[in-house]
Structure formats: C-alpha cells, structure tokens
Design brief:
Elements: H1 29-35, H2 37-51, H3 56-72, H4 81-101, H5 106-126, H6 138-168, H7 179-202
Helix pairs in contact: 2-3, 2-5, 3-4, 3-7, 4-6, 4-7, 5-6
Amino acid sequence: MSDFAQPAEIQPSRFPGRSKHPLSDTRHLGDWLEVQREFLASYWFEEISRRVGMDQEMERVLERFLNLLTCMIPGALDHRRSVVDPVWKRAAELYGALGSKRGLAAGDIVEEFQIVREAVVRILFKAPPGRYGAALSLSEVLRLNRFLDSGVTHASIGHTDGLFFALFNESGVSTVPTTQLVAEIEEQLDALEVEWAAEGKAG
C-alpha cells in the first residue's frame, strides 16, 4: 500500500447546532460520531478501494464490513459500551481473516484497519465537536483510541489465524477468495449484524 495516496474527497456530515438551551441538550463525542458514521464508512471504503484492487463481489462484502464496524464505534462511548466490545472484536477478527484470504500481508491489514482512525482525526479538525455543541473530553478521546486499537489488534489476530488454518489445511493462501469462502464469511457477517442489531438496541 502506498503512503502517498491522496485522501478521499469526502465531506463530514453537518452536526446539528446548539439548541436554545444548550445545558438541557448536552451532546458528547459518541453523539457526534453517530452523525459522522456515513462519512467514516465512506472514507474507509474509498481509501481501501484506491489502494487495493477488488472485484465487485469483494467490494460489496467490504462495504458491509465497514458499515457494521463504523456503526459500532459510537457505542464505545455511551451506555452500550458493555455490549459493543465483544461484537467489535469478533467483527475485527473476521475482517482480518478475510484479509488473509485476500492475500494481504500482516502489515497491510493493520494499515487498512488504521484508516478509520485517520478518518476520525480528519473530522475532528474539519467539523470539531465543540463547534456544534458536543462536549469533547480527554477521557472519551482516550477511550475511543483504545477501542480503535483493540480493533487493529483483533484484525491482526484474525489475519494470523486465517493464515494458520490455510497452512494447516494445506489449502494455501489465495489472493482471490473463492465463492464458497465469501459465502462462509457473509454467513458469519450476517450473524454479527443480527447480534449487533439486537445488542445495540438492548444496551
């Protein structure tokens, strides 16, 4: 992957302005990230697409992954914290396992997952939460950073596991996942989406 690729020209979403009674309408970093989910997913997808060639089927699967992962990020900063963590980690591991089947090196999958952190930094500067009435605390920023770190870590674990099982089964590592493999990945992705839909609401 190139370090010199130009950033995607995607604009952050507008965050609703302050109410007439800001003290009764306190917003936090999680609220701001909820509004920016579409930007995060789009930026992430566009950056990966510009760096790595994929067929349409893999692009579709990748978009599903990124939409699910970015949906979970705001939950790390609100009342859903206790339920989002295990689903996030499993989704990141599955993402890493798919990366191994796409022929990505360990460093590539880390770099690919780090793109979402870059997207968060970009919107922090382009659309600062404080400008729109959202509080920004150091504790929340640190919590968000740790959450994203755990995604990178578990994507790496999934990538390593994917390589191990490919070698163990003597199937080798292909740069083009088979139709059967994609179907298996999507089946697991289906389960994660259903789990997050249920857990996210319940939390």
